[in-house]
């Protein structure tokens, strides 16, 4: 490895690490996992045939027996269409029962599922279909394949089960090859970090309000419920009123979504009219969260344990998790390494900030048909995340920036995520992105693009006062651009900073230095 690598302590990580062993390379693995997703789902269907497995809001409801039988018929239809082991089956369906049947049907056919981000633009979709070499594409409006029931159970832990295409901010997507062990390791991690009692499975009801083509919705929600016999309720398209109504009507016990979704839901004037008392677990991630929002979530869901998760497509979802006991006091942290995850920092600076490296059985083996990208990202068994992070002596991890988004202000490093975290709690701010503004003298200065809260007049004075109480002076943005429309994001929900850098009219600075 060309870079200097510093391993960090795991500290007092509060997770169950029983049944974990290390291989000859030093990589940790869970012992006793099922050999494949197919074996896992078959086992659940046999144990809980009549438990409600899947609900599409406004649509179908399936028991585990029905889910297995219908997925097996999809597998049979795929086989009759010529699909063989290792062939790719692309899934362009919207979130719902058919999406799940298409995904599981591909597994039962021995094929490799390719969930396609339906928010991709047409050239990106065409690229994914071409790059994956999909022999069958499941499309909206077309019936699912149907044939004699089939269940290919020959797949093993190291076989590729799916290819999730990343939604990078530049260039075409890269296909993360996800093995059965990657999936099953993430499932086990999700159960352990959240503290789920497996025997409670049939009583748990999880609402998926994020896309199923994303690893959060598929790997850390749907598949986790399928492992323990819980119920997955899928909201086909997000609507805040439907979100609240579904939580109440379906007696949802588990929620996982982005901070912005919770902020929007809790801001609804009629939120108090919905019975949310069944919720016992609330998880969030993917964006900075203000301590004030954590407190509001706790107030609205008093029975719930909270948690902040962090991960990548390349880690099959969860790499770190911040449990309930740390949720309010360390809202800016993404938590501790998962039970089978090792963390390290590449080339840490004087402040202990370096690129976050991740190792574990959840880390995918590489990118489909992309040896160059694989060699650059996966080095000596470690995933180079592209995120700049620091890890304190307790083992708590703090993501401070994407490596390419760090602002060099006259030789002083300003990490945009740190400033965005501070802006998340500023008065009148609904959302914010921080970028470098070119400057002849300093090289770059700090600029913030702010989305104001609906119905609120944005005032710079209180925002600056808030920021100065939380940030060193040189980190406080000198330039502000206020907008009402949402920030541009890629199909995976990440803020697209390039158009903000290139297309924002900054005007004069709002303060000196």
What's the helix and strand layout?
Layout: E1 5-7, E2 20-22, E3 28-30, H1 37-47, E4 52-56, E5 61-63, H2 64-80, E6 88-91, H3 97-108, E7 112-115, H4 122-132, E8 136-138, E9 160-165, E10 175-179, H5 180-194, E11 205-208, H6 215-228, E12 231-234, H7 240-249, E13 254-257, H8 259-266, E14 281-285, H9 291-300, E15 305-310, E16 320-322, H10 324-327, E17 336-337, E18 342-346, E19 354-359, H11 371-377, E20 378-379, E21 382-391, E22 397-402, E23 407-409, E24 412-414, H12 416-424, E25 429-439, E26 443-452, H13 460-470, E27 479-483, H14 497-503
Parallel strand pairs: 4-12, 6-7, 6-8, 11-12, 11-13, 13-14, 14-15, 26-27
Antiparallel strand pairs: 1-18, 2-3, 4-5, 9-10, 15-16, 16-17, 18-19, 19-21, 20-21, 21-22, 23-24, 25-26
Structural class: alpha/beta
**Overall pLDDT confidence:** 92
Specify Rg, calculated over alpha carbons: 23 Å
Q: What is the CATH-assigned architecture of the largest domain?
A: 3-Layer(aba) Sandwich
For the record, what CATH class of the largest domain applies? Alpha Beta
Question: Would you write up a description of this structure?
Answer:
The chain is an alpha/beta fold and 513 residues long. It has two domains: 396 residues, ANL, N-terminal domain (Rossmann fold, 3-Layer(aba) Sandwich); 98 residues, GMP Synthetase, Chain A, domain 3. The chain contains 14 helices and 27 strands. α13 links the parallel β26 and β27. α1 runs antiparallel to α2, α2 packs across α3 and α8 packs across α9. The model has no long low-confidence stretch (mean pLDDT 92).
């Amino acid at each position: 490895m060309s870079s200097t690598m510093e391993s960090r302590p795991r500290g007092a990580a509060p997770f169950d690490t029983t049944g974990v062993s290390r291989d000859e390379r030093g990589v940790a693995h869970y012992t006793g996992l099922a050999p494949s997703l197919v074996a896992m789902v078959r086992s659940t269907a046999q144990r809980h045939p009549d438990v409600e497995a899947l609900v599409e809001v406004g649509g179908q409801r399936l028991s585990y027996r029905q889910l297995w039988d219908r997925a097996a018929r999809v597998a049979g239809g795929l086989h009759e269409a010529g699909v063989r082991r290792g062939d790719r089956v692309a899934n362009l369906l919207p979130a719902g029962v058919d999406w799940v049947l298409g995904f599981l049907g591909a597994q039962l056919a021995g094929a490799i599922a390719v969930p396609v981000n339906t928010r991709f633009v047409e050239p990106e979709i065409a690229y994914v279909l071409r790059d994956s070499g999909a022999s069958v594409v499941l499309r909206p409006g077309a019936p699912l394949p149907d044939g004699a029931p089939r269940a290919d159970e020959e797949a093993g832990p190291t076989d590729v089960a799916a290819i999730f295409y990343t939604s990078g901010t530049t260039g075409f997507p890269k296909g993360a090859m996800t093995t059965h062990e990657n999936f099953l390791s993430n499932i086990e991690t999700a159960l352990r970090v959240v503290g789920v009692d497996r025997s409670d499975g049939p009583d748990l009801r999880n609402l998926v309000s994020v896309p199923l083509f994303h690893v959060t919705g598929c790997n850390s929600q749907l598949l986790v419920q399928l492992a323990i016999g819980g119920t997955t309720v899928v909201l086909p398209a997000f609507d805040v009123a439907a979100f609240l109504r579904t939580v109440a009507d379906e007696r949802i016990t588990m929620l996982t979504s982005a901070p912005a979704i919770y902020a929007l839901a809790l801001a609804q004037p009629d939120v108090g009219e919905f019975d949310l008392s069944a919720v016992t677990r609330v998880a969030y991630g993917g964006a900075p969260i203000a301590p004030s929002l954590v407190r509001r979530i706790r107030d609205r869901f008093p029975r719930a344990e909270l948690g902040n998760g962090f991960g990548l497509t390349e880690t099959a979802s969860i790499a770190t998790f911040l449990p309930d006991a740390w949720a309010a006091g360390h809202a800016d942290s993404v938590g501790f390494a998962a039970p089978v995850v090792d963390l390290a920092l590449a080339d840490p600076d004087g402040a202990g900030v370096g690129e976050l490296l991740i190792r574990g059985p959840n880390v995918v083996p590489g990118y489909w048909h992309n040896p160059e990208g694989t060699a650059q990202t996966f080095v000596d068994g470690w995933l180079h995340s592209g995120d700049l992070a620091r890890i304190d002596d307790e083992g708590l991890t703090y993501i401070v920036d994407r490596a390419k988004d760090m602002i060099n202000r006259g030789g002083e490093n300003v990490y945009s995520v740190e400033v965005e975290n501070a802006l998340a709690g500023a008065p009148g701010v609904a959302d914010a992105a921080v970028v470098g503004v070119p400057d002849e003298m300093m090289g770059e200065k700090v600029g913030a693009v702010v989305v104001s809260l609906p119905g609120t007049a944005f005032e710079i004075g209180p925002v600056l006062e808030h920021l100065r109480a939380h940030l060193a002076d040189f980190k406080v943005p000198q330039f502000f651009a206020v907008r009402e429309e949402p920030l541009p994001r890629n199909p995976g929900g990440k803020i697209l900073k390039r158009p903000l850098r290139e297309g924002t009219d900054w005007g004069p600075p709002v303060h000196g230095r």
